[in-house]
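From the shared-data thread, chain only:
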Amino acid sequence: MPCYNIHTRQGLMSLHGDLGEPCADCGDVGSLLCDYPVGGGKTCDRKLCEAHGNLVGDDIHYCRSHYREWCDNNPSKKTYQHTQIRAINLPGMALTVMMFLKREFSRRDPGVRCQQVDPFLCSSALPLGRDGREAAEGSVEGAPHESLSAGLQWCLNYRLIEIHWKQQRGAAALPRFALTRAGLSVLEGGHIEVESESEVR
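Structure, as tokens:
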């Protein structure tokens, strides 16, 4: 049975299971392929994890060696920045968070869209434990493919989700998270324009 080396905030974790070919650069779960053209209409196709898939275009990733080669051949090109956010280019944990929230929304959604969607988005807000508190406090470090809290923070930054504070009797208010209309649109095949110069990764 294959073994994967997964980097977490607590350190290196070994995972046994059949999740496909591991990342060629680190042994983590490989979810991307190197898209570098090698001739004859073919691409490199090395398996890569999110940390080692260097982004050079919208859903176009290069492995480490081909990224270096591409940089050498294109010295004037800056680091690629998405101009749109779509479901296909969401970081792994950001997509995971949004799918949690979409599932809860779908349970409450009457199927009637237009002005009625907002109450159902709000009423489907979920608490997400320690990760949710960290994201709400803005104290998250790390990339949005590394932890749930970083994925939450990323989604908040791009207004794909929002926080609804719920006061509990005798206790501090707890953050609950819900999709925004923009987040719902992205998950349902739409896209939003990126306003800032920040790279979406």
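The longest helix spans residues 92-108.
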